[in-house]
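Quick check before the chapter quiz. The format below is the same one you will see on the exam, so make sure you can read both the input and the output lines.
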Amino acid sequence: QHSHLSQTIHPDIITLTNVLSTLSPNNPNSDTVFAQAVSRGIVLKHNYLDSSHEVDLSGMSRSVARCAVRYVLNNLRKDLVHDGCGVTFITGVGGGGRWDPRRRGRKEEEEEEEE
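Here is the expected output.
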C-alpha cells in the first residue's frame, strides 16, 4: 500500500514547510521528515555553495532552516570531520526584503501562511 502512495504523491518544498511548521521544533520526527526530503531531492540539493561546509539557508522558512542546520551538523559529526574546517550557514531575509529586528520571525511566518 505504501509503495503505491510513494509513486503517486510528489511532495515539494511547500509540503515540507507545512509539515515541519506543524511539528514542534523539538519533535524528533522533524529530523526524520527532513532527512527523507533530502533523499528525495526536495531540499539541500543546490544550497551548498563552495563546499558541503557552506549552506545557504536564506530562502528557507524558519522551520526548514532549523532542520537543515541540525541535518548538516549531525552529518558532519557522523563523518567525524576533524580537519579544522568550519561550517558556514548563509542567512538573510531573502527576496530583497529588509531585516527588521522588531519583526524577527514574523516575515517567515507570514510567508508560510501565504504559501
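If your answer matched, good. Residues 38 and 45 are 7 Å apart (CA to CA).
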